[in-house]
Amino acid sequence: MIVYLASPYSHPDPEVRRERFERVCSIAARYMAEGVHIFSPIAHTHPVALAGNLPKHWEFWEEYDRKFLAICAELWICTMDGWEESRGIAAELKIAAELGLPIRYVTP
To answer: Distance between CA 100 and CA 73 in Å, rounded?
Structure first.
């Protein structure tokens, strides 16, 4: 089973984005160490986005994330600061509902 680990990312301050990236990497690593097969769009794509100077907005990433959600068995929402305001997480929740995926809220 592959789990999609959603977390907040977007913020006008690049330092906040970096902190969110580092935090979700640690969380994803913890679950991976426990044997959970995690896909974290932020942990797995942030370095690529920086290297390629890719857009940071949801519209660019929507199709990419939709394809990954379609192959995952569950959506886990990381309830770190900013998750309730996250446009990306709101969209991921909507896609997960369309796909009938179970949703779990995890505390960082």
So the answer is: 9
Give the structural domain span for 21.
Answer: 2-106
Say what the pLDDT of residue 57 is.
82
When divided into structural domains, the chain yields a total of 1
Residue 66, C-beta contacts closer than 8 angstroms, at least 6 positions apart? 95
3 state SS for the chain: CEEEEECCCCCCCHHHHHHHHHHHHHHHHHHHHCCCEEECHHHHHHHHHHHCCCCCCHHHHHHHHHHHHHHCCEEEEECCCCCCCCHHHHHHHHHHHHHCCCEEEECC
**CA–CA distance, 43 with 9 (Å, rounded to integer):** 10
Query: What is the per-residue pLDDT across 52-98, written as a single tens digit (0 to 9) for each?
Result: 999 988 889 899 999 999 999 999 999 999 999 999 999 999 999 99
Amino acid symbol at 79: T
CATH number at residue 62: 3.40.50.10400
Provide the residue type at 59 as one letter: E
